[in-house]
Write a structure and sequence with these properties.
Mean pLDDT: 82
Distance between the termini: 59 Å
Structural class: mainly alpha
Order of helices and strands: HHH
Radius of gyration: 23 Å
Shape: elongated
Largest sheet: none
Number of strands: 0
Low-confidence stretches: none
């Protein structure tokens, strides 16, 4: 069964080419990512439970085929909408974390910088 996740299975810094040179920031980002993923999983499970209960209720009521199709279509739309929202949340978090990493990297003195002009 598809859990609705795509590339968001991995933390943002792992998808973007590796961790920063700041372990504390990486740990913070990992905690944020894990928390978001737990919230999304919980939301996904709750929606699935509601859908399952609705399907059982329709079966008990012998809902006609057209009604069942309408409900299934609405449920699929809800699931798609939730998955899109989750992907947007993941992308926003990734962008924010990348900005934090970049900001952190810009603060560090660069000892490797050679201020002399390069000779060819």
């Amino acid at each position: 069964m598809d859990n609705g996740r795509g590339s968001s299975d991995r933390p943002p810094f792992a998808r973007s080419g590796g961790a920063s040179s700041n372990p504390a920031l990486d740990q913070k980002h990992q905690r944020e990512f894990d928390k978001m993923q737990r919230q999304q999983d919980s939301e996904r499970q709750k929606m699935q439970q509601r859908h399952d209960q609705e399907q059982q209720r329709m079966s008990r009521q012998n809902a006609n085929e057209q009604r069942q199709d309408q409900v299934r279509q609405r449920q699929q739309q809800q699931m798609d909408q939730m998955n899109r929202r989750h992907e947007q949340q993941s992308q926003k978090m990734e962008q924010r974390q990348q900005r934090e990493v970049q900001k952190q990297e810009n603060r560090k003195p660069n000892d490797n910088r050679d201020n002399r002009p390069h000779q060819r």
